[in-house]
Design a protein that fits this description.
Low-confidence stretches: none
Largest sheet: 5 strands, parallel
Strand content: 15-25%
Strand order of the largest sheet: 9-8-7-10-11
CATH topology of the largest domain: Rossmann fold
Shape: globular
CATH class of the largest domain: Alpha Beta
Bound molecules: phosphoric acid mono(formamide)ester
Number of strands: 11
Radius of gyration: 19 Å
Order of helices and strands: EEHEHEHEHEHEHEEHEHHHEHH
């Protein structure tokens, strides 16, 4: 199985990185690197229409997909759930089928429910392609890909030498799941998963990872630190005592970062809670690749859209 799921009738979808192979990821990352360097055909998808169908808020994913579509010469339709007929009770599937009837061939879908994008993909016409832009806590494959591109640019192609720490609310993070899947597929040397016990999953997500609760210990000698957003709603569920306690135990500070390798890089998918999981000094500091991740999002999404829609 490769990164893209083929469906009957010529449809192909990107739903998760669970079954991704090293070869398929590397091919996509090489293509994305070419896009990042500006080597592409600005009319590659001319005449195609793509809809960003987001049922949850987004800044980075939605806008970078829209830019990616436009840079490939395709039309982009931006669906806004808050002003759409979903407010009158129309279902996600009916919404998609109606937009599909207008001739749209590509859908970039974000939904709060696990598995929702795969469910929609099962009902599209032959030739219609879906990209999962984040479903529940399950998967955010293009974030995983852009994180791998960012690591590859910073640390080279050989992931077997990399020690990576993933920090924070892994339990509720679709980004963490896609990152772990991609790191495993690319043969990362060590994946350390660290956070409070209440925010670490026990569903197999972290199989093969070194799991711990002590951030200082987990940072020792790592080459990359991938911070995650503390989902503040978890406080209401009682999974976190207070923001102050969380910052004390799991906030990345300049002092803590000194435990990592001297050339370690810091990543965060955004949006950040500054002063909670990461300080301003680290987020805006010389080791931060956070805005590089955002820039790489456009290139990765161009590579994904081209691969899915050009065939
Ligand atoms: N990283 C990420 O998915 O950000 P958005 O929610 O702003 O798209």
């Amino acid at each position: 199985m490769t990164t893209f799921v083929s469906a009957p009738g010529g449809s192909r979808h990107l739903l998760s990185l669970r079954e991704a192979t090293r070869d398929s990821l590397e091919a996509l990352l090489i293509r994305a690197q070419a896009f990042a360097e500006g080597h592409y055909d600005h009319r590659a998808l001319a005449g195609t229409a793509v809809c960003t169908l987001f049922f949850e808020p987004s800044t980075r994913t939605r806008l970078s997909f829209q830019l990616a579509v436009q840079q490939l010469g395709a039309h982009v339709l931006s669906f806004d759930a808050s002003t759409s007929s979903t407010t009158k009770g129309e279902t996600a599937l009916d919404t998609l089928k109606n937009i599909e009837a207008m001739g749209v061939r590509g859908f970039v879908v974000r939904h709060r429910d696990d598995g929702a994008v795969a469910e929609l993909a099962a009902h599209v016409r032959p030739g219609t392609c879906l990209v999962n832009a984040g479903d529940g806590r399950s998967a955010h494959p293009t974030q995983g890909l852009l994180d791998m591109l960012t690591l590859r640019q910073a640390k080279g192609n050989d992931f077997s030498r990399l020690r990576v720490a993933i920090v924070g609310d892994i339990k509720h993070s679709r980004v963490a799941r896609s990152d772990v899947q991609a790191l495993r597929a690319l043969g990362a040397g060590e994946i350390r998963a660290v956070g409070p016990a209440s925010l670490l999953p026990d569903d197999g997500t972290l199989d093969g990872c070194i799991v711990g609760h002590d951030l200082d210990a987990a940072l020792d000698g790592v080459d990359a630190v991938m911070m995650l957003r503390l989902q503040r709603e978890r406080m209401e569920e009682g999974l976190v005592d207070s923001l102050e306690d969380y910052h004390r135990d799991y906030g990345l500070t300049v002092a803590r970062l000194k435990r990592a390798a001297p050339d370690a890089v810091v990543m965060h998918p955004g949006p950040m809670n500054r002063g909670v999981e990461i300080t301003d000094e680290v987020a805006d500091g010389p080791q931060s690749l956070i805005l590089t991740q955002v820039a790489n999002g456009v290139a990765v999404r161009m590579a994904v859209l081209e691969t899915l829609l050009k065939g």
